[in-house]
Write a structure and sequence with these properties.
amino-acid transport; L-valine transmembrane transporter activity; Branched-chain amino acid ABC transporter permease; two-stranded antiparallel ribbon; ABC transporter involved in vitamin B12 uptake, BtuC; mainly alpha; about 300 residues; 4 strands
Length: about 300
């Protein structure tokens, strides 16, 4: 089997880009899980709402694209807080299965709302851009075709993850988040408003999902209410792969998942139609071999 270096480099960059987007959503999963031990399956749908907010902000309200994205991040952050307050807060002391079922219900509700309110048809995200050619511009180095949008997405993803790490590990609110993830009752006794910190966690994780959604739509500029379903599932797998509950693990798991997917397609083009199955095979293998994930720590479940 001969391997074309040009295709290898192009797909490696594509894998890094897609993996970075998986990582952004996976961080949202792992932040909420780390604090509440809750898998919020609605993150893929929050991602889609972020795309809709940016799209209609630019096309209907006529905001500039950067301002429309800012509005999208703020809108999805607020949506995350609303989801927590209405759906999850009443179940803080309920069995975890109740919260899990609620998370699935929230996901279905957002999807159905988007179908009814925005319509079921695909929409062209490029209509939201002032400069539509940016999605097609590229560098050509030797025989390697390098789309500029990939570098833009990689750069924004790196900046977003850097800001997140600064918030979590260098600020008081980040210290409170880490304290709550270790012990909620003790943290509340120390005078920390647990509900406010949890709400902030939902806000920032939802904003990251929206940012991932906007960049996903820039790279694959056609979207509809169920666009976030597969990326959301794969981001969950990436979080488990890297070690759910670990932010660094979510980033590593997301990037590795994206690169592995693209490299398998590069090496075995006939398996292209089974691309989405690779993530689930990886999930099964990691659960069998290292259930805590690559960077996760084995914990004892409290009864």
């Amino acid at each position: 089997m001969s391997l074309n270096p040009t295709i290898l480099i192009q797909n490696l960059l594509n894998g890094l880009m897609v993996g970075g987007l998986y990582a952004l959503i996976a961080v949202g999963y792992t932040m909420v899980y780390g604090i509440l031990r809750l898998i919020n399956f609605a993150f893929g749908d929050v991602m889609v709402m972020g795309i809709y907010f940016a799209y209609y902000g630019a096309t209907l309200i006529r905001l500039s694209f950067p301002l429309a994205v800012t509005v999208s991040l703020a809108g999805t952050a607020l949506l995350g807080i609303v989801i927590d307050r209405l759906a999850y807060k009443p179940l803080r002391n309920s069995p975890r299965i109740s919260a899990l079922i609620t998370a699935i219900g929230v996901s279905f509700f957002i999807e159905s709302f988007a179908v009814v309110f925005f319509g079921p048809n695909y929409k062209p995200f490029l209509d939201a851009l002032e400069n539509k050619t940016i999605a097609f511009e590229s560098f050509v180095i030797g025989n390697v075709y390098l789309p500029k949008i990939i570098f833009i997405i990689l750069g924004i993803t790196a900046i977003a993850l850097f800001i997140l790490f600064v918030i979590v590990y260098r600020t008081k609110i980040g210290m409170a988040m880490r304290a709550i993830s270790a012990d909620i009752p003790t943290t509340s006794l120390m005078g920390i408003n647990v509900d406010n910190v949890i709400g902030f966690t939902f806000a920032i994780s939802s904003a990251l999902a929206a940012l991932a959604g906007v960049m996903w739509a820039l790279r694959y500029p056609s979207f509809y209410p169920y666009t976030g379903f597969v990326p959301g599932l794969k981001a969950f797998i990436a979080a488990v792969f890297g070690g759910i509950g670990s932010i660094g693990g979510a980033v590593v798991g997301g990037i590795l998942l994206g690169v592995i997917e693209m490299m398998i397609i590069t090496l075995f083009p006939t398996l292209m139609q089974y691309k989405d199955a690779f993530a689930f095979i990886i999930l099964i293998v990691i659960l069998l071999v290292k259930p805590a994930g690559l960077l996760g720590k084995r914990t004892v479940e409290k009864v």
